Amino acid sequence: MVPRYSRPDMTALWEPEEKYRIWFEIEAHATEKLGQLGVVPRSAAKALWDWWATDPKIDVEAIDAIEAVTKHDVIAFLTWVAENVGDEARFMHQGMTSSDVLDTTLAVQLARSADILLADLDALLAAIQRRAEEHKYTPTIGRSHGIHAEPVTFGLKLAQAYAEFDRCRRRLLAAREEIATCAISGAVGTFANIDPQVEEHVAEKLGLSVEPVSTQVIPRDRHAMFFSTLAVIAGSIERLAVEIRHLQRTEVLEAEEYFSPGQKGSSAMPHKRNPILTENLTGQARMIRAYALPALENVALWHERDISHSSVERFIGPDACITLDFALARLTGVIDKLLVYPKRMQANMDRMGGLIHSQRVLLALTQNGVSREDAYRLVQRNAMKVWESDGQLTLLDLLKQDEEVTAALGAEQLKEKFDLEYHFKHVDTIFERVFG
Amino acid sequence: MVPRYSRPDMTALWEPEEKYRIWFEIEAHATEKLGQLGVVPRSAAKALWDWWATDPKIDVEAIDAIEAVTKHDVIAFLTWVAENVGDEARFMHQGMTSSDVLDTTLAVQLARSADILLADLDALLAAIQRRAEEHKYTPTIGRSHGIHAEPVTFGLKLAQAYAEFDRCRRRLLAAREEIATCAISGAVGTFANIDPQVEEHVAEKLGLSVEPVSTQVIPRDRHAMFFSTLAVIAGSIERLAVEIRHLQRTEVLEAEEYFSPGQKGSSAMPHKRNPILTENLTGQARMIRAYALPALENVALWHERDISHSSVERFIGPDACITLDFALARLTGVIDKLLVYPKRMQANMDRMGGLIHSQRVLLALTQNGVSREDAYRLVQRNAMKVWESDGQLTLLDLLKQDEEVTAALGAEQLKEKFDLEYHFKHVDTIFERVFG
Amino acid sequence: MVPRYSRPDMTALWEPEEKYRIWFEIEAHATEKLGQLGVVPRSAAKALWDWWATDPKIDVEAIDAIEAVTKHDVIAFLTWVAENVGDEARFMHQGMTSSDVLDTTLAVQLARSADILLADLDALLAAIQRRAEEHKYTPTIGRSHGIHAEPVTFGLKLAQAYAEFDRCRRRLLAAREEIATCAISGAVGTFANIDPQVEEHVAEKLGLSVEPVSTQVIPRDRHAMFFSTLAVIAGSIERLAVEIRHLQRTEVLEAEEYFSPGQKGSSAMPHKRNPILTENLTGQARMIRAYALPALENVALWHERDISHSSVERFIGPDACITLDFALARLTGVIDKLLVYPKRMQANMDRMGGLIHSQRVLLALTQNGVSREDAYRLVQRNAMKVWESDGQLTLLDLLKQDEEVTAALGAEQLKEKFDLEYHFKHVDTIFERVFG
Amino acid sequence: MVPRYSRPDMTALWEPEEKYRIWFEIEAHATEKLGQLGVVPRSAAKALWDWWATDPKIDVEAIDAIEAVTKHDVIAFLTWVAENVGDEARFMHQGMTSSDVLDTTLAVQLARSADILLADLDALLAAIQRRAEEHKYTPTIGRSHGIHAEPVTFGLKLAQAYAEFDRCRRRLLAAREEIATCAISGAVGTFANIDPQVEEHVAEKLGLSVEPVSTQVIPRDRHAMFFSTLAVIAGSIERLAVEIRHLQRTEVLEAEEYFSPGQKGSSAMPHKRNPILTENLTGQARMIRAYALPALENVALWHERDISHSSVERFIGPDACITLDFALARLTGVIDKLLVYPKRMQANMDRMGGLIHSQRVLLALTQNGVSREDAYRLVQRNAMKVWESDGQLTLLDLLKQDEEVTAALGAEQLKEKFDLEYHFKHVDTIFERVFG
């Protein structure tokens, strides 16, 4: 976790205090059910919840100090709770293993992280939609291979991004559902010393589903799927970030990250305004993608479990969630305040002297009876002149002067082929599909 | 693609013939709709389908020869079709771009690959379930960290695998749904020269959904999700493969890959029977995981599209699908014919002189009023003797001779704590959860 | 391996015929030494080499047919050789294991692949150097963050690429040295049934060094290092490919992949010339990087060896080497024939009205006694006007009219700050460092 | 960075204080040379070094407070230095860019990290060597595929590990040399405003070499190589960790991580002693491998530089170095105190009734004139009985009773084939090769 790439809510979720809070909830809910089942006194859960109702401070240092002696984190925590709650606390954890607490806690943390990320995605989608509507009909050149192809609108670019992040949202919802399971099944997962009803009770209270079969641990294919889903989202972040970096290039400059009036882009070069936010996002995307790999390697634990996944998750649990939360929020800010330059879009589109309409002329000639080969030759010979003039000549002018062309296609018809609006007749259809 | 790790049906799907067959279907369906819309003569589609009904041989070499001249694969194919169908064929491809054909074809190939993989998973699940039922109550030791923990059944191990691959099945279904989209939207995806109804028609005919917004290409986050899902499945394959490799170790030998009567394990060492199939699967899993990475990097194409994804997909499209198909089938065979040795399982479980029941004695002493500290000390001092005897002494015998122990726990009570069945009382619950 | 991304020499190295040829050499050299040691008759090696001298055709199908019966590739090969050579062949392979042959063969294949790749790098370096010298003083704008910064030369860009690929060359040499080891040490590597002198002899004959300690297999950290090195080279290929893709963008167009006179960039849009070769290289780089991962996972084989590495290497051995060979050759072609447009470079540099010289004016004002704050303000207020004029105004003109500026800096001095040559005074130093 | 997986020296190297200390050194050395070149007063460097000689506290909070205003980290630092040093400090940083400082600092940090890691490797190598000498002739079974093969010694296992980490050491030395370069070349790397002699001076003072051609940044192929090298080392750590995890399995138990007398393996199960340190190392290895990926993606920066590498390096710089340092130290501790059980090794080797000697009998029969087919049949029919007896019968006994066998091989000769020492005659050769 890099502090400058983190936000408080998500970070708090991965702090020791929060972890211990979830531990307590799991233990208290379990004790409650054990009481109902007659395994422990009903008074035990009451004592725990009464203390909890006082909103006690989680004393991480005290727990650490106990752990330094017991060498066992869960026992240290239980000891600290017992010191605070008193004798009734000894009924906690009956028939459970540490993994029951640790794995269910990780499930809660990842599910809650997913909730934050879903809210991040909602905010991002809202920002993209707002700017898409704003620029629904702002003409700009569509580029394939980085080369001018045919016109699109800036709104269409954003509609694509919307549809992509909407898919990311659905994927994350599915990943959240997968990861949000509860395992309280005892050593090697047989429920030998704990009734499955305890698991069901805790699951219900924490909003989790029951892990159908655990083997002391919740199976790690769930986590692999979760972190792989974050990796896919990171890919989509990179795509939009790279788009903006391209648009801000000096020669293109069709859009820019927001730059406040008094801001300095460079201490040495007053002319510089760099797309540093989206460059930053590009790097963060690389990290989030990388975190999926060890999660995939974690799946093949030995037999009922080994603990090799644990060190991995101490890194990627917080690092992937915190970084993705930050990245989504940053991207939302970038989109929200993005400076868009329609005039420059138009100017860029015009710089090739209308070459971008060559396909329509070609088709029209063909439809008017010129063979495809001839049509291609006619358009190309004029197009090449425009190309060589570096945009000083225009294709329409040259075509109008080419008698072979005008024999097949009148001036009015020719001109109509250079109509920008022609390309936008289905923008509404696409917006309808995307935004409903 | 490595021939020895491939099966014919999946491989055929990625052969040029099949690709061209899908190309034809897309073009013919599109022409059909263009005819209905009055853009081209209705006779065009009829001519195409009439020819297709003759089940013509796809002449890959002839198409290649044309491509050598035109330097364009789609044009080469259209030319070849025109040579066969005649003049009506010139109406094909009206208003479309090559990407419309290529990307929709890839969608069809991946969707059909997913169908094969889903069938593979069904077969695997059936094999696992059969063996799980067979060994529902076959006792075996549960191991955490590779160390004996407490008893489970071999059926439970397989129930875990079943639940895991069942999740994989659901993930693959979702990935299939995501990838199965159709884009026929023309250059830069604006439908400028082709009606969106054509796309809808082709999509319906091919069993695809409509890509809401394409930008000449189908967005690559879909493919990233697809290949990431295959990677997760590979992780689960590795887990089960590693389990079997462990079980076949000389010292463990609780199960073995099938070994036919006359087979030689090693030309030099007649005693060898190696788990080579599952070792092989382990390596294949590594490959399938690796293929997800470039798919993730493919997401961030430049602007409306660049073609950097294309070379990647020429590798990972066939390689990931073919290898996973092979791996699932091989794993199914391994499970189906797995040699299981219940006696050895029992022998291994017994080798520690009953130490695996130490927890229950500890709990019973506590419940009978011995303090936890004392109980631990009592059990441990006997357990250590058993440990040091390397299984020659048994814990039950020693405990019966320990007066401090027997003061709290009678012989009958003690014996009951060593009951294996105690651990299996919820096997049925778990099976019910997993197999329904 | 994708046929269209492969070249014949490298591909041949990974064909079965070549593999069998190397197998034979290893076996024959070993038999030779065994003869000298008196373990087998000296006549055995002679018989083998005599047959080999007839340049016999390697009959892959015949060997495959035998393998179908024996289920063992090395035994099948030995049987086929025996069928051809006769009785003396039975002395081959004495005291060896299959891995001795397989692993040493892989070492030979990788070492020879490295030789081809080193030659590829030499060709690439030569092409880069030639173009660097050609454009040593061709001015072009240096860009940070995609934004104009200060002037460089196109030769400097290429000098950087040269230095980078020269480092790649040295890394590959080191990786080649690491991988080129010979292991002939028998089952589990103890030399129990074969004298270490055999290993030394075979190593010397094949130009390999001796593996100091093998455990039936050559340790896979060597291979991990080899494929990681290829991955780093792929990164450098991507860097140069991306540079060219940027330079060919419509708005930049400072360089282009070669485009032959009659070539069509797009069947529909006559104006298109796409950087498809470098886009292709970008995708290939992603694949080559991905292949390093399973090689890294292969390191941790179980005990003396498991065979999980084998299926991985059947993929990545040929795929990584063949693809990298192709990519290096393609990049060489791109560089060799790259169309470079110095005029456009100059035009792009000029489009910001001299803003790129703002730093020098700032420094000069400071040196002439203006406070840094005032200097920044003076330059910025003029720079902003230039910026807003979109290059219609020039910074030099405005500064000359700004009395506060001219009070500190005379017209002549001002003009001198806009001198392009100033930036190139150390080009020679850098070239000296890079090209020696 | 996860605190529990970090050690103080390495961590300190990545703290802000240390970073600022290196910044100061670079700036002061540069100022010194600028003074010698007459660009700034010689008194400037003196003032800086005089202040530095007072060992001033680096006030990170004060610098942060300035950065909150200036929004520029290097300017904030320079301002803070100026506040402390006084007027002379204004000559610092003349003609330099921030990247000159940042990239050279990263080079220093990585080089110093490499020094720590090299020392770690030395300690690890020493521990391995000590244990290897100790167990040079401790017999243990060699296992391929997890199955007993033929005898080795425990010392040989460790000799392999030694050779592997010795290669890692050499790789790290090479990576260190690559990464230890200094770039002080100004904006876009042309030395336009700073003399190359400054770079040479700073490089020499900091023990770095000169970056031949930088483009504002040090090229990232160097960093890719560095982190890839760490990834390979991680693979070797995993290999040795997995070996120990295997050896500690209940059924194998030939070695164990150190377990102190009073220690509790599990609060619930007194019999448990888990290989948690090496499981932990396995997970850490996965992380260190993962960090190589974004480093590889960082290579292809846009044009002279973009800043996408920066966020990546804020993660992987500290995380990869700190985690690897911790892992190497932990592995050293594990090896140093590893509990080794030669008796159990012997017992495991004996459990198959001498089957592991089957190859030698086979060879001896062949050498005495029995055909290979007959010899195989004779050995196999006895071996199978031993196999089925689960080690109750021994191969030697059975062979002695088989008349067909004894007709070819006398009792004495037979017995000799079961000699363990036979396998160890070249242990010395191998040790000589490895330890010199």
Automatic annotation (TrEMBL), chains A, B, C, D:
Family matches, as InterPro entries: AdenyloSucc_lyase_C, Fumarase/histidase_N, Fumarate_lyase_CS, Fumarate_lyase_fam, Fumarate_lyase_N, L-Aspartase-like, Pur_lyase
Pathway: Purine metabolism; IMP biosynthesis via de novo pathway; 5-amino-1-(5-phospho-D-ribosyl)imidazole-4-carboxamide from 5-amino-1-(5-phospho-D-ribosyl)imidazole-4-carboxylate: step 2/2; Purine metabolism; AMP biosynthesis via de novo pathway; AMP from IMP: step 2/2
Keywords assigned by UniProt, alphabetized: Lyase, Purine biosynthesis
Record-listed E.C. numbers: 4.3.2.2
GO MF: lyase activity
SUPFAM superfamilies: L-aspartase-like
CDD domains given in the database record: Adenylsuccinate_lyase_1
Top-level enzyme category: lyase
Pfam name, any one: Lyase_1
Reaction it catalyzes: (2S)-2-[5-amino-1-(5-phospho-beta-D-ribosyl)imidazole-4-carboxamido]succinate = 5-amino-1-(5-phospho-beta-D-ribosyl)imidazole-4-carboxamide + fumarate; N(6)-(1,2-dicarboxyethyl)-AMP = fumarate + AMP
Domain Adenylosuccinate lyase C-terminal: start-end pairs: 353-435
Family of this protein: Belongs to the lyase 1 family. Adenylosuccinate lyase subfamily.
This protein's name: Adenylosuccinate lyase
Organism per entry: Qipengyuania qiaonensis
Underlying gene: purB
